[in-house]
Amino acid sequence: MNRPSASIASPPGLTTTEAPFIEQAQRDGKLYVTQPYELYSEENHQAWQKLYQRMLPRWQRYANPHFLEGIGSLCLDPNRLPRLEDVNRFLRPLTGFRAKAVSGYVPAFLFFDSLRNREFPTTITIRRSDQLDYLPEPDIFHDIAGHVPMHTDKLFAEALVRFGQCAHTAAELVSGIRGRETQMHCLTSIIKAMARFFWFTIEFGLMRGADGLKVYGSGLLSSYGEIAHAIEAPEVQRFPIKLEWAINQAFEIHHYQPLLFIVDSFDHLFGLVDQLEAWMKAGKLNNVAPGEPGVNEEDLKSFLHAELG
Questions:
Q1: What is the DSSP letter of 179?
Q2: Which CATH number fits the domain that encloses residue 271?
Q3: Mean predicted lDDT score pLDDT of the chain
Q4: Domain containing residue 101
């Protein structure tokens, strides 16, 4: 009697929430890692292929021209997951930025300071093939296909670096505040303001173009459903950005965004970052409106123990 052959389990690969390599790095306390490209499974590559192929026509329709030029400059393979070393080979000569692999969550100061140093913390796992539409945490498609093409644009890159510099300003200001309770209140408020600004610009920003509104925010650029919803849905509120609105507006991540802000250009965005820092120095970020996002203990510690050399 023939015995049924044992099924061969597929390799775990680097699937979001199912990656032994990442789990081990986290247990070892390693935040920065080397991308183990050989660990990607065929399912991982198929997920990238599906995501890229279905996003391409939406990028062509809704994305801003700087993003489209960036996608071309990076020479991404539509069928295979990118090697970060190849991405950086095309990216660094353009703006000095590079993608830097991480094992998971990067505390707020470290993340913002990475931008100041022209480094973008990059997730190396990818969502499952049956979870293409939504993932609460970032993955390599969100980071490389959503964020990094924008990093090829010099004006956008300078605005990102300028924003990263604001983290140093915040850490220096907070270190001079007397009284532990007051210090923690102000720091929490400043981090919340910076996170909201990043959300409503870098992640979910819209920009005026010669042929109407276009998307430049990476959260929209990596979402098949929301990129169209952001431009076309009549229920979405779209307003020219005002700093006081953005830093006092709570947001939730588990549904399509009902409110989006519009910038005129990346020069405009850079000017908003300058204004954000000026308001920070004037104490105008010390008491922003309550609400999401939350600020966790690791975020607070990252600012309180920041190395400012």
A1: S
A2: 1.10.800.10
A3: 94
A4: 20-304
